[in-house]
Design brief:
The structure is a single chain. With 82 residues, the protein is mainly beta. It has a single domain, classed as PRC-barrel domain (SH3 type barrels, Roll), CATH 2.30.30.240. The chain has one helix and six strands; from the N terminus they run H-E-E-E-E-E-E. The chain has a six-stranded mixed sheet with strand order 4-3-2-1-6-5, with no helix packed on it.
C-alpha cells in the first residue's frame, strides 16, 4: 500500500463514484485506541447540493466512512450508495 500523508490530502475534492461532488476534505478522524482511520470529514459544497441525504455534524460537515475510498489522485473518489 502506498503511504500518503494526511496533510497532502486535506483540501482535495471528494467525489462520488456517480460523479457527485461532496466538497473538500477538512480532516480525517481516527480511533485513538486502535489507530484505525474512521471518517473523512468533508466541508460541503457552497451551493448546498452535496448536503442532500447526508447527515451533518455540529459544524455543518459530512462524515464519510474511510472504507468508502476508491481512489486517491487529484481528487478522492468514494463509493456512493450501499
Amino acid at each position: 500500500m502506498t503511504e500518503i500523508l494526511t496533510r497532502r490530502l486535506v483540501g482535495k475534492s471528494i467525489v462520488g463514484t456517480d460523479g457527485t461532488v461532496f466538497g473538500t476534505l477538512s480532516t480525517i478522524t481516527m480511533d485513538p485506541e486502535s489507530g484505525a482511520l474512521c471518517d473523512l470529514v468533508v466541508e460541503p459544497r457552497g451551493d448546498g447540493r452535496s448536503k442532500r441525504n447526508k447527515p451533518l455534524d455540529d459544524e455543518g460537515r459530512m462524515h464519510i466512512p474511510f472504507g468508502r475510498i476508491e481512489t486517491v489522485r487529484d481528487q478522492i473518489v468514494v463509493q456512493v450508495g450501499n
